[in-house]
Amino acid sequence: MNIEAATEEFWKNGYLVIENAFSTDLMDRLHGHIMDHFSQSDPSILTDEFTQVSKCEIVPWFPQRDGGPADFDEIDQVPLLSALTDAILGRNWNNLYSMVMFSAKGTKGQAWHQDCPPEDNSRFNLNRLIYTRDIVPEIGGQVMVVPGTHRNTVLPAGNPDDDLEGQIELRPKKGTLVLLHGHTWHRVLPVTGGHRVSTNYRAGPAEVEADVTDICVYRNMRYQFSTQSIIEQR
Ligand SMILES: O=C(O)CCC(=O)C(=O)O
Ligand SMILES: [Fe+2]
InterPro entries under this entry (predicted)? Predict the structure, then answer.
């Protein structure tokens, strides 16, 4: 792969999709661990204010932080991922955390959002998203993005999950890497036909603080996770 061309494409569009970035074997091992983990928890309890207002329904798991299987560390060793991250963020980037996101059948996915406030374009996170199973319309959970919106543009206020002009639908396959700038407008469609899983190895530029994603911008509010509060109604 031409890392320079890929990096240019990332900065033009605010996202980049690379198929077959990870081996089938690694994807199967990770998916097995994810299924084991979520079969032991109850992902159906989603009644809090955040879930109600944000129209986001995911259950997170932090396998590397919480002593999960060592297989999750293998992603950090994949040379293509390191090379692309170096090229996009610069050499001393911060590896923030890995988060598995599980959505049960019949859940809403995630409404349009920016992972952190876009007003300062040097302050952003990089989502390094890994898909251990195909995302297909029969199950739902396709990723919607609006290309180019990472350039200092605030997501317009409005209905949380209305269509937006210029939106593009992504259907990442098993083994696909999606690099997504945290300011790029994005959402996850409802999960209708089965459960959905994605895993985000979040990173950020060296000079950006680790809690850069504490405040998330939705079309109807800004929400602060650390205080569990709506800090702006829109
Ligand atoms: O699960 C996905 O495909 C994207 C989730 C997302 O919005 C994020 O990780 O910031
Ligand atoms: Fe996001």
Answer: Oxoglu/Fe-dep_dioxygenase_dom, Phytyl_CoA_dOase-like
DSSP of 178-216: EEEETTS-EEE--B-SS-EEEEEEEEE-TTS-TTTTSEE
Taking residue 100's Cβ as centre, other Cβ atoms within 10 Å add up to 24
CB atoms inside a 10 Å sphere around CB 39: 8
- The answer to whether the CB of 54 is under 6 A from ligand 1 is no
* Superfamily (CATH) of domain 3-233: q2cbj1_9rhob like domain (2.60.120.620)
218 φ, ψ (degrees, to nearest 5): -110, 175
Q: What is the residue with the minimal CA distance to atom 5 of ligand 1?
A: 188
Residue 59 is which amino acid? V
Residue in 186, 199, 213 to alter for ligand 1 test, most ligand atoms within 8 A of Cβ:
186
Cβ(188) – ligand 1 distance below 6 Å: yes
Neighbours of ion ligand 2 (CB under 5 A): 115
Residue 97's nearest CA partner among 113, 115, 84 is 115
Does this model's pTM top 0.90? My answer is yes
